[in-house]
Amino acid sequence: MRSIIHVDMDAFFASVEQHDNPALRGRPVMVGGGSHRGVVAAASYEARQFGVRSAMPGMKARRLCPQGVFVKSRFARYREVSAEIFAIFRGYTDLVEGLSLDEAFLDVTESTGQGMDLEQIGRALKREIGQVCGLTASVGMSHNKLLAKLASDYDKPDGFVLVLAEDTERFLDPLPIRRLPGIGPRSASKLHDAGIHTAGQLRKTAKDLLRELFGEHGAELARRAAGIDERPVKSSRVRRSISQENTFSQDHTSLETLRPVLMEQALQVADSLHRKNLYARTVTLKLRSSGFSTLTRSSSLEGYTRSAELIGRTALELLENWAEWRSAFAVRLVGVGVSSLEAQPALESVLDPAPDQ
Is residue 110 part of a domain? Predict the structure, then answer.
């Protein structure tokens, strides 16, 4: 049985703005939509209480929430934070299926076989996103993508819901049918006319009736109402990161023994960047303790690089900052990775543009 996590950042664009500008915290914030014909790209949860939603005309949002604050979109910043979040994801698994800048499926089945259970990994992910990015995420966990997605939506914002296989019907049955993917207004109207309002009622509906209402698609709706989903998590075909890691036969307990390992890994990562003609902007350190808990720390550079020295130095700084707050540690795995990759970044954005970088 798989172990799947769905992570959905809470009001991502607006939350980034509130994080970067403390004066906006607790206030209704609308990203975009400030011009006469503008459209709201995102709304904070404070703004949503007034009925403001994304894709809403800015003029309507202003009427609903006259005390709201409109801020300009900063997509370069959102992509930067997204890279940090996805670097955290890849600290737990290589099977990451990004759905957008702020949403992804993770298959952590392999990690659950190494001493951590699904709930522990979900909590670690949520905690690390908060520590590294200062943002909240809603996390759903289950044995397939459908249930993990429904779980992350169940208690937003800042949600954390685990649906065990034996609890599938208990979780699904009370849900309104509109919560199921693939059921839009027209399908819901047909089901309501037939007296079907919840996922549990849909699950128990005769196949002949569903076939009459929806044709062959009726069988798929019944499967969803029963929580059946066999889709695998498909990692992106576009290379988003490059990394090297080592698992030790004995735990390392000092910085002196870890530093040369990190520098060697930085050399290998830089060599991969050269061979693939890529540059990176985000450096990530991955650590796994003797108790199998995993953490990542990331740092976004001011520009792009493929310099082994810069990558290694940045990874060492992350390691030393982490170790500074610990009287003792035992590390069984360490890794260095880079992300936010570009094949042809603007020359002025390349750090140390030397021939051997």
Answer: yes
Average pLDDT of the chain is 90
Per-residue pLDDT tens over the stretch 341-350: 888 787 778 8
- Taking only the tens place, the pLDDT of each residue in 149-174 is 999 999 999 999 999 999 999 999 99
Looking at the chain, the whole-number percentage of residues with pLDDT higher than 90 is 65
Domain check: are 308 and 338 in the same one? yes
Q: Are 143 and 271 in contact (CB under 8 A)?
A: no
Q: 324 is in which domain, residue-wise?
A: 241-349
One-letter amino acid at 95 equals L
Catalytic residues: 103
**pLDDT value of position 238:** 54
Predicted confidence (pLDDT) per residue in 95-151, tens digit: 999 888 899 999 999 887 666 789 999 999 999 999 999 999 999 999 999 999 999
Tell me, yes or no, if the pTM score tops 0.85: no
CA pair distance 150, 170, nearest whole angstrom? 13
Q: Which residues contact 159 (CB under 8 A, 6 or more apart)?
A: 138, 139, 140, 151, 152, 153
Dihedral pair phi/psi, residue 172, rounded to 5°: -75, -45
Q: Are residues 252 and 295 in the same domain?
A: yes
- Within this chain, do residues 258 and 317 fall inside the same structural domain, yes or no? yes
246 and 345 housed in the same domain: yes
- Match 């109207």 to its residue by tokens: 189
Which amino acid appears at position 270 of this protein?
A: A
Cα 20 vs. chain centroid, distance in angstroms?
A: 19
Name 264's Cβ contacts closer than 8 Å, sequence gap at least 6: none
More confident site: 54 or 162: 162
